[in-house]
Amino acid sequence: MITRPGQSGRSRAAVHRSGPAGADQPAHGATLSESGTRLPQDIDTSTPSIARVYDVFLDGKDNFAVDREVHDRIVAIEPLADTAAQANRLWLRRAVKWLAGTAGVDQFLDVGSGLPTADNTHQIAQRANREATVVYVDNDPSVCAHGRALLTDNERTSLVAADLTKPQEVLGHPDVTRVLDFSRPIALLHCGTLHHVSDEQQPRAIMQEYVRALPDGSYVGITHFFDPADDPHTDEAERTRLSAKAREIQRGFQTAMGTCFFRGHAEVSGFFPGLQMLPAGPDPAGSGLCETTAWWPEGPVQGQRSDLRLLGGVGRKPGAEPGRV
């Protein structure tokens, strides 16, 4: 549903031709996405959705005018914001490929998975291991409608409608306990989710609850918007500039959507409670939590970097012997 970075696809101008929010509504009260997919009538096309806004950043077509307005607001602040979203998606691809291939994990819980894309978690994992099982979790009606349509013919993949900020609701869902075997390692993915969870919602406690429930030998992968104010690896002038840009982007998202929280390295590290961080590259002494573009890159970063930075990392819950690591 989403054009891969680097592939040809519908231009951004074409995406915007649909006009104001009202123009997204077809006759007879039905709701259609830009792709023409019929969606549940309870979808609110007058309010931006986190999942649909990210769809715009990835040059997708399952969004509405109100979502594109948020995108335009952020791009006005940071013109290369789209490349940051693409880098985040590429990080997920590399992480799942490593987990399913090198680490030998065959169970994945992708929380806050968002709208389906050109290369989804189950497709990446099942290329490495056709027996891999994947459960997606999201409570956005658009995601649930598209996801269930995509997964109809894949018996080893499920989608659960649940609130990611309520771990017991997620972990205790009948479809989660039916598909995943909690006596064996599981890979839990929180890719771009926790920066939409406020401090008042206690994201650190949320992650502690998730990690506590995972079997020994499980993995946790996280990406998160990065405010480099506390980054010792960036010189002071650049750190000040990027931190100011992070706060400006945060205000832009919060004004448009009421959510978005950039955090520093120390704060994001706290979302891996008790986990052994994996090296972010071939140097075992390197930091396990780094910018997404630096985490096991498949080559040099092409083009200009966005000032919208994200951290990414994978941690392992100790106890059981690693698979093939």
Automatic annotation (TrEMBL):
<dbReference type="InterPro" id="IPR029063">
    <property type="entry name" value="SAM-dependent_MTases_sf"/>
</dbReference>
<feature type="compositionally biased region" description="Polar residues">
    <location>
        <begin position="32"/>
        <end position="45"/>
    </location>
</feature>
<protein>
    <submittedName>
        <fullName>SAM-dependent methyltransferase</fullName>
    </submittedName>
</protein>
<dbReference type="GO" id="GO:0032259">
    <property type="term" value="P:methylation"/>
</dbReference>
<dbReference type="Pfam" id="PF04672">
    <property type="entry name" value="Methyltransf_19"/>
</dbReference>
<dbReference type="InterPro" id="IPR006764">
    <property type="entry name" value="SAM_dep_MeTrfase_SAV2177_type"/>
</dbReference>
<dbReference type="GO" id="GO:0008168">
    <property type="term" value="F:methyltransferase activity"/>
</dbReference>
<keyword id="KW-0489">Methyltransferase</keyword>
<feature type="compositionally biased region" description="Polar residues">
    <location>
        <begin position="1"/>
        <end position="10"/>
    </location>
</feature>
<feature type="region of interest" description="Disordered">
    <location>
        <begin position="1"/>
        <end position="45"/>
    </location>
</feature>
<keyword id="KW-0808">Transferase</keyword>
